[in-house]
C-alpha cells in the first residue's frame, strides 16, 4: 500500500483542479488496464508511433513500450493529440531489454505476424497478461522478437494485401482484445496503488507551475 504522504500529496494537488476534472480522472482510470501492454519495434515513421500511442489511450491500455534500437524519435504531439500525457511510455534501447523487462513482470510475449501458424485474433486467449508486439509493415518484427515470443497473433484478412500499416494493425488488435476483456470476468483493472500513482501523475500534469505548487506543499510539512 502507498504511504499516507502520497495520499496527502494527492489531496493537496486536488485543491488546484476542478471537481469535474477529478471525477473525469476517476472515471477514466476505471477503464484503464495493464493486463495488456503494447510494444512497437523500430518504427521509422514518427506518425505511426504517435498513432499507436493514441490508440492505446483511446482503448485504455495504460503502457506503451517503444524499442528504439535503430530509430530514436520524439513523439509527434500533433498526431498523439495529448495522449502522451495520459499513457505511460517506456523506452528501450534494444528488443532484448524490453522483452526481459516485460517477461519479468509476468507478460507473455505475443508477436503479431501474418505467418500461417499464427493464432487468429478472434481465437486469442485474453485470460493471461500479454505484451502485444508490432513491427513495421515492410520488415515486420526482428528475428530476436520472433524467437523469444511465447505466441503469435494474426489479423484475419481476405484480400490480396497481406499486411496492414502498423497503426491500422494496432488499432484493430487493441480494440478487439480490450473490448473482449471488459466483457469478461477477468480482474483487468488497475490496482489501488496504480490508481493512486496515476491520479497524482495526471493531477500534476494538469496544474500550471507544478514545481512551485509542490514546493509550497513540502514547505508546509
Describe the structure.
- This protein has 221 residues and is of the alpha/beta class.
- It is built from 10 helices and 7 strands.
- The protein has helices at 4-13, 19-29, 46-58, 77-80, 83-86, 95-104, 143-148, 166-182, 192-206, 210-220; strands at residues 36-41, 63-67, 88-92, 108-112, 119-120, 130-134, 151-154.
- The chain has a 7-stranded parallel sheet, sandwiched between helices.
- Helix 3 links the parallel strand 1 and strand 2 (63-67).
- Helix 1 (4-13) runs parallel beside helix 9 (192-206).
- The model has no long low-confidence stretch (mean pLDDT 89).
Q: What's a quick, concise take on this entry?
A:
The chain is α/β, with parallel strands linked by helices and 221 residues long.
Main beta sheet: 7 strands, parallel
Helix and strand succession?
HHEHEHHEHEEEHEHHH
Strand content: 5-15%
Structural class: alpha/beta
Strand order of the largest sheet: 3-2-1-6-4-7-5
Query: How much helical structure, as a percent, in the residues?
Result: 40-55%
Total number of β-strand segments? 7
First-to-last CA distance = 21 Å
Q: What spatial form do the alpha-carbon principal axes imply? A: elongated
Number of helices: 10
What integer is the average pLDDT?
89
Uncertain spans, ≥5 residues at pLDDT below 50? none
Radius of gyration: 19 Å
Key structural traits:
46% helix; 10 helices; elongated; 221 residues; alpha/beta
